Amino acid sequence: MRKIKSVSDLERWGEDVIKKEKEYEVIVSVCGGTGCQAYGCQKVKAVFQKELSKKGMGERVTLKVTGCPGFCERGPLVTIYPHNIFYQRVKAEDVPLIISETIQNGRKVERLLFEDPEAHCKITSSQDIPFYRAQTRLLLSNNDLIDPTRMEDYIAIGGYRSLAKALFQMRPDEVIEEIKASGLRGRGGAGYPTGKKWDNCRRARGETKYVICNCDEGDPGAFMDRSLLEGNPHSILEGMLIGAYAIGATQGFIYVRQEYPLAHKNAGIAIKQARKAGLLGKNILGSDFDFDLDMAKGGGAFVCGESTALIASIEGKVGEPRSKQIHTIEQGLWEKPTNLNNVETWANVPLIINKGSQWFSSMGTEKSKGTKIFSLVGKVKNTGLVEVPMGITLKEIIFDIGGGQQNGKRIKAVQTGGPSGGCIPASLFDLPVDFESLTQVGSMMGSGGMIVMDEGTCMVDVAKYFVHFLQEESCGKCLPCREGLKRMGEILDRITEGKGNEESLSLLEELAEVVVDTSLCGLGKTAPNPVLSALRYFRPEFEAHIHQKRCPAGVCTPLIQYSISEVDCTGCGACAKVCPTQAIKGEKKQSHFILAEICSKCGSCKDVCKTNAVIVQ
Amino acid sequence: MDSKSVDKIIDKYQEKRTALISILHDIQDRHNHLPEEALRKVASRLRMDLNDIYGVATFYKSFSLIPKGKHSITLCLGTACHVRGGPRILREMKKQLNIEPGQTTADKQFSLNVVNCLGVCAIGPVMLVDRKFYGEMNSIKARRIIEKINKNNKNKKNGVKS
Fold first, then answer.
1. Cα within 13 Å of Cα(B70), Cβ side
2. Which positions ≥6 away from B143 have C-beta within 8 Å?
3. Of A274, A500, A584, B59, which is most buried, counting CB atoms within 10 Å of its CB?
4. Between residues A323 and A111, which one has the greater pLDDT?
5. Contact, A153 vs A147, CB < 8 A?
6. Chain A contact for B44, CB < 8 A?
7. Measured between CB atoms, which of A301, A378, A578 is closest to B84?
């Protein structure tokens, strides 16, 4: 590891890395994100390594394991440069062919290219794939280019130059003014103006100040922070260094949830490298600015995403939130002024310092600037991470980028904002996505999870899911959240069991109001949102459960029955073989049927049926 | 429990109280749970009250005071996995292993856990088996994973190479 003592050292290192890279004729980049790992990218990488060295191509071809490019559903992903050929769903056994065809002869392997679902033609470069075409990938695009465990890769794409600019060309208050002018707002959910927060922390009284990066991405369905910290950890470090310089902090922490082992590992490696290179420690880049970073690991508690609970957790205590009469900006970690931002917020900082606030604020809407990364998941064709300018409509995200419905079932809603958010019905999909618009319709931006729901999703079940989720995660300190959510969960349980009555919904609404008004922290205050939004837009589904004892989506087990369509059943017998209660009868090659009285409604038959003959009603 | 390993872990974090959660993680990784003896050692070396350590060890879901099974089955029930059929897989796992989430089978082979999100939502439902991620799961695939582990265990016992 080189020691960087000045800006010119940094520039020289960058030039050297680029020069070295130019010596290679071909760069093979394999996605090493957690999603692609589930599909076996490590095997793909290992075979590339073995085959390339066997063929003695190590000097001409370099192999790079990068962060997540976002299109997880199509993994493992492999891109060959400079040809810019994007291969998807690559298996270890495809590797020799890629080497002999593409790397040695410059020909494409058609079979591994992405096929346009409408035009049915093969697409060579990722930029032309509909999923990527409509995105503005300011933050995520770097994930494609760098190996997160190699600091030099980040240096080569201009890394730490924004820090240099801040340290030598800007005063701390000028940095804050620049962030303020950019209009950057916190990406963790609440959307508080970042520059204002920094300013408050800078003005707070006290010598010792801290900065914290919140990677306790607890919202289920959101994973953009994981991908950023996993795929480009040095950009987070750079953002924090700039923030610390502006605020006057000398120590920082990155808090990573325990469920993200790779993010934890890569961030840890990055910190060690930065320390060795002299970008953390004393007199950074030869200036009089000192700063160091440490890691802290969560323990599987959702509430620790809340700033005061997170701070308690870093202090090694039980992660209980406290009342925010005194803000963490004044008294946070060890009662010292503390500035906490989430991963995506920190990742935006170097970009703004480098390209200027004007450039940043030219994107987005009047009050929400820049881009936002969403994790588009659930019942939608293309799933993965998408980065788009603020103000784009839900329709564009779900249909143009996401490709619309998945299994021929109509999309009816999208859930945003995690357990504090709500479900937005398809009739409102023309809504621009920004902080204000989503709140207006009873949901919120949250950290950026977008879970698409179709006719096969029961909205009562979803409401119940979130209430139970939050009941489980409630720290138990205040009564309205602890007891109120429990009672709300019980009412919803009864409704989904067909035991709801006339009063259930009004009681549910009344309780929700009390929990919102009287809970101590954000978790409780927003906990009833999913229920209230579901009631607001999908009341007839609740009423069907209560009055007709029917689950229209076919999800709530006590209210459904499985049967087999005589027309579609080919009599293959696969369902009868997997049925754990032997409830499926029928002769071979004849239509089968289910004995309702012994059916345990496990759904195994539906999972194995190749002709979709199993009907749930 | 060898107390040297616990000392080593505490040394690694220089007896810092702030590192308590990391220390507990490391102890659990090594011993498959948090033995009482280890917690007492942590309390004395960090000069903390055992009660406070017990509070932390029981507040955070990832810690267990009883030994976990040889194989860990972690099912994600985040929203994306939920709407794609996660609960059906959970029902199947409960039935296969005959335990509830958070419990370990009597033969100490399997522990079943449920988490709120593993952040691999794009390929849900997701299951984590002994640190390996499996995407696009359904109840049948999950059942086969358990069957395969059982078969391997049996073969190992009988000295057959798998």
1. 8
2. A604, B92, B96
3. A274
4. A111
5. yes
6. no
7. A378
Interface residue B92 vs chain A (CB under 8 A) = yes
Contact (CB<8Å) A222/B119: yes
Q: Given this model, what pLDDT does residue A181 score?
A: 97
Query: Measured at the alpha carbon of residue A566, what is the angle toward residues A565 and A570, in degrees to the nearest 5?
Result: 100
**What region, left, alpha or beta, does residue A370 occupy, with left being phi > 0 and alpha being psi -120 to 50 degrees?**
left
Q: What is the pLDDT of residue B162?
A: 45
Q: How far is the alpha carbon of B81 from chain A, nearest alpha carbon, in Å? A: 7
Structural class in CATH, domain B71-157: alpha beta
Chain A residue numbers with beta carbons less than 8 Å from the beta carbon of B127 are: none
Q: Which CATH number is A569's domain given?
A: 3.30.70.20
A129 and A160 both lie in a single domain:
no
Chain A CB contacts of B118 under 8 Å are 34, 259
* A183 and A325 housed in the same domain: yes
Give me the pLDDT at residue A390, please.
96
pLDDT bracket for residue A303 (50, 70, 90): confident
> Residue B161: what pLDDT?
55
Same domain, A302 and A431: no
Total of domains in chain A: 5
Residue A341 domain flag: yes
- Going along A433-588, which residue ranges are E strands? 449-454, 562-564, 584-585
Indicate whether A182 and A298 sit together in one domain: yes
Strands A449-454, A422-425: pairing kind: unpaired
pLDDT value at A322 more than 90: no
Structure ipTM: 0.90
For residue B2, give how far its alpha carbon lies from the nearest alpha carbon of chain A (Å).
24
Domain boundary among A547, A571, A586: A547
Report the Cα A371 to chain-centroid distance in Å: 14
Q: Do B78 and A220 touch (CB under 8 A)?
A: yes
Residues of chain A with C-beta less than 8 angstroms from the C-beta of B115:
259, 300
Instruction: Please check whether residues A520 and A582 belong to one and the same domain.
Output: no
Q: Is the pLDDT of residue B101 over 50?
A: yes
| A581 belongs to a structural domain | yes
Contacts of A561 (CB under 8 A, 6+ apart): A596, A599, A601, A616, A617
In a domain, A6, yes or no: no
In a domain, A72, yes or no: yes
Task: Please state, rounded to an integer, the average pLDDT across all residues of chain A.
Answer: 93
On the CB side of A108, how many CA atoms lie within 13 Å of its CA? 17
B140 touches chain A (CB under 8 A): yes
Domain boundaries defined on chain B: 3-59, 71-157
When computed from its CA atoms, the radius of gyration of chain A, rounded to whole angstroms, is 26
Partner A contacted by B156 (CB < 8 A): no
More confident residue, B132 or A242: A242
Q: CATH number of the domain at A401, please.
A: 3.10.20.600
Q: Does B94 touch chain A (CB under 8 A)?
A: no
CATH number at residue A48: 3.40.30.10
Last residue of a domain, one of A547, A573, A598: A547
Q: Is the backbone peptide bond immediately before A148 cis, with ω within 30 degrees of 0?
A: no
Co-location of A207 and A166 in the same domain: yes
Flag if A218 and B116 touch (Cβ within 8 Å). yes
Q: Are residues A491 and A436 in the same domain?
A: no
Using the Cβ of B122 and the Cβ atoms of chain A, whether some distance falls under 8 Å is answered with: yes
Contact A616, A562 (CB under 8 A): yes
- pTM given for the model: 0.92
Of the listed ranges A281-285, A287-291, B116-120, the least confidently predicted one is B116-120
Residues A202 and A334 in one domain: yes
Q: Return the H-helix or E-strand segment holding A495.
A: helix A485-496
